[in-house]
């Protein structure tokens, strides 16, 4: 009689070598299916428990006589592919590699063997040069190829990031046109934001791997033009305001906010898709455009009640970031906040502010 689970081997397919360099390689494997002999219930060998790569410097590497890279322990639907980097390897050495899979029955299956040899590459020398701003959202970056080496370059350009000071091609990249040659090339980098500092360095993709320039260049695009320069005005109790121009409006749909309507809580009521974020008591003039675009803007009500002091978010000196319903970013500071207006009161309830609004990108 058969046991509940037999050690039949899962079927695996040929490994493919994607890239090889001096001390490593990128390889891709595939699991096709459980062994096709698993067609009788009593001979089921169960799901795949483990799969990956095994390699060695001798042919027919095994789990017992080879280096193992376990890729996963899950049981995804077959067929499925997986790709990994293997390193460190020895220069100028021939390696044999294949996929493996182990199932619940204990059966281990191996795929056909692939072979590759690491090379003794001499890589190109790269540097990143002058950065020229070409628009509000792009820049031209010069890439210098100082020498070509013996590792053929398939593509090259600039990789960049606003957070990673040593950017790689896994961040953002812009590729140069034309064939690599000794000399200087200009690469246009687009989709940038003004006021943000970016870090850039040159890269080149070769059969021996991706190489980078030793030095990294930092650059910042200028802020956009100002649409409405600093403007101070009074927001009257229970009125709508357009923050593109900084004025009272009566046209329905043109208003970005109300400074509280009748009988409601004092505060900012966003309208028509305009969004706001409280930045706190910071220096109004030192708040940059990038601070506005990165703020957590929302359409939520902002409480400005002086009666409910714990909930008040709009004390004198508070800076608020906003984006208008026309898509312009801006900043507003509370210069003076009037008393909460009580029902039937003859005055009170106004707020004095200063705004600055930037032009659209």
From TrEMBL:
<dbReference type="InterPro" id="IPR036116">
    <property type="entry name" value="FN3_sf"/>
</dbReference>
<protein>
    <recommendedName>
        <fullName>Fibronectin type-III domain-containing protein</fullName>
    </recommendedName>
</protein>
